[in-house]
């Protein structure tokens, strides 16, 4: 009967693309002795929010929807705020115009009406 080769333990390693594979420890390159240097431009993107969301039980679809609709929602709210600011400005200008016209058209009665209008605000 043939003799089987001696069993050598295999080690699980993580490949550069993130997948795991079995490797023979003797075939692995020597480990670095110093600290690993990671340059900023080579660092992977930060996915902390997505990891927290997925870890808490939120599905990938909800995370993708948040990534897609988040900036869209900010844009819509900004547009609404700009419209409201424009309407408020127009209301102030129109009120000022009404007060000015009432003051100039009628004499003392106009001044009294403008004074009453100013107190109402």
Overview of the molecule:
- It is a single chain.
- By secondary structure, this protein is mainly alpha-helical.
- It has a two-stranded antiparallel ribbon.
- The N and C termini lie far apart (106 Å).
- 55% of the residues lie in helices and 7% in strands.
- α2 (60-105) packs antiparallel against α3.
- The chain has helices at 48-55, 60-105, 108-120; strands at residues 11-14, 20-23.
- β1 (11-14) and β2 (20-23) form a beta hairpin.
- The chain has three helices and two strands.
Keywords for this entry:
2 strands; mainly alpha; 121 residues; single chain; 3 helices
Tell how many strands the DSSP assignment holds: 2
Q: Structural class, please?
A: mainly alpha
**Helix amount:** 55-70%
Q: Order of strands across the biggest sheet?
A: 1-2
Radius of gyration, in angstroms, nearest whole number: 36 Å
| Count, helices | 3
* Shape, per Cα inertia axes: rod-shaped
Q: Unreliable stretches, pLDDT < 50, 5 or more residues?
A: none
Q: Beta-strand percentage?
A: 5-15%
Overall pLDDT level: 75
First and last CA, distance = 106 Å
What is the H/E string?
A: EEHHH
Largest sheet: 2 strands, antiparallel
